[in-house]
Structure formats: structure tokens, C-alpha cells
Amino acid sequence: MKKLILSLVLANLLVACASEPVKDEAQEPAAAPVATEPAAAPAETAAAAPAPVATEAAAPVAEEVAMPTEGSVHFPFDVDAVQAEDRAIVQAHGKYLSENRGSKVRLEGNADERGSSEYNLALGQRRANNVKKLLVLSGARESQVTTVSYGEEKPRATGHDEASWAQNRRVDFVGK
Fold it and tell me: Quick check: pTM over 0.70?
């Protein structure tokens, strides 16, 4: 009975491992015919026809490679929950990671200078962990995301006022 269960588990594991490379191989040949079509179109028709084809061919490549441009999520004082206005940023990163399984990101949690260094390290870690949870809910794999907290050690702004502190209460997305 144990051998039967073990063989079923191993068979499922092999099937799961084999399914991802097949998807990658299926995408590569699909890109090749699109690239050959624009080359044939200019020879046959006037210059107006190739322009839409070229933008169609360029769009999928841009979608596959385009990393979200926003690199930080900000937090109110003493709060570790991702705010509603920043959820779209996190979800965009999660979507990118779900479509690009080879990509990885490090989430760097930060806090302002107020509070003890131990408290700020813990707050930065909670912030990074909450962003990671939302990334995973948005499609990223946990193995694609690592977290670290710098607490108050890496301030973006060096002032001692609310505007500076607001810039320092953040989680940064760092591609790996």
C-alpha cells in the first residue's frame, strides 16, 4: 500500500514538473511566426500595413518583460497593513511575477526613526511580510519573494519632520 501511494505521489510530481517547460516551449514557437509575418507584409503591400503588425508583435514582448515601474509601498505611522491606494501597485507586481516565474523580488521593509531600533526592525518585517502575502494572493509564488527588514537603518529622507518620516515608512521592491 505504501509503495502504491509513493508511486502515485512520484508520478504526480513528475507530471507537475513536466507541465511548466511545456508551457515555455509552447510560447516560444508562437512568438516566431509573429516575427516572420511582419517581414512578409512589407514586401507585399504598402508601408501603411506593416505598422499595425509591428506594434502587435512588439506588444506581447513588452508585456512579458515589463516590470512594474513603482518600486515602493508607503505606510501611515505605526501601521503594517497595505493601504487601499497601494494595493494596485502590489497587485501589478504580483501579476508580473505570476507571468514571469523566473523573476524574483526582495521586499525591503523600512520604518521612520521614531521608536526603538528593535521595534522598527519588527515593524519593517511585518510590513514586508504583509506585502508578500498580497503578492502571493495576486499570483506570485512564495519562492519568488524574500523579505528583509532594515528598520530605520536605510532612510530615504534624512529630515526630522513628518514629510521625511512619511518617505521612510515603506517597503521597497528590489528585483533579483
Answer: no
DSSP element (H, E) containing 6: helix 2-44
Summarize the confidence of residues 123-136 as an average pLDDT.
Answer: 97
Handedness of CA 64, 69, 70, 71 (dihedral sign): positive
- Shared domain check, 13 and 53: yes
Given CA atoms 131, 136, 141, 143 in this order, what sign does their dihedral have? positive
- Within this chain, do residues 96 and 161 fall inside the same structural domain, yes or no? yes
Residue 100 and residue 52 share a domain: no
Percent of the chain with pLDDT over 70: 61
Same-domain status, 112 and 135: yes
Q: Are residues 96 and 127 in the same domain?
A: yes
What is residue 173's three-state secondary structure? strand
CA distance 69 to 56: 22
Domain that holds residue 58: 2-65
3-state DSSP assignment of residue 151: strand
How confident is the model over 88-128, as pLDDT tens digits?
A: 999 999 999 999 999 999 999 999 999 999 999 999 999 99
If pLDDT is split at 50, 70 and 90, which confidence band does 71 have?
A: confident
Identify whether residues 61 and 132 lie together within a single domain. no
Same domain assignment for residues 118 and 144: yes
